Description:
The chain has one domain (2-145): Alpha-D-Glucose-1,6-Bisphosphate, Chain A, domain 4 (2-Layer Sandwich). Helix content is 26%, strand content 38%. It contains four helices and seven strands; from the N terminus they run βααββββββαα. The radius of gyration is 16 Å and the shape is globular. It starts with a strand and ends in an 8-residue tail after the last helix.
Amino acid sequence: xxxxxxxxxxxxxxxxxxxxxxxxxxxxxxxxxxxxxxxxxxxxxxxxxxxxxxxxxxxxxxxxxxxxxxxxxxxxxxxxxxxxxxxxxxxxxxxxxxxxxxxxxxxxxxxxxxxxxxxxxxxxxxxxxxxxxxxxxxxxxxxxxxxxxxxxxx
Length: 154
């Protein structure tokens, strides 16, 4: 099952990218992340591993499986009931209109359930869960468009 949400952000893709790949910024725009920390050494790239903390004391591990600067990145959950699920972020820079460059941000969540959740999983994908994904892209838009510069978000 894939859940998708998109928004047009009135910023160049490089600014959107900078916010998306900053683990310390995730809790600011993604309410299901209380914390995200890199657990592997080296730069953020394919193979980089992360550990995340979520409400109700849930923790998950994730690995980046696609990384194309200013265009796309994806990570796969490697633990928990959604192991094998993927979060995909696609950035498409749009032609300048009125001197401003915009970016179409698309977020896809490819949900895969394992164990007992395999049967119960589809029941867990509620309208509020789908709305939550929409809120995430809208929050990225709001944060970037309201800030004077991307460095002020750090």
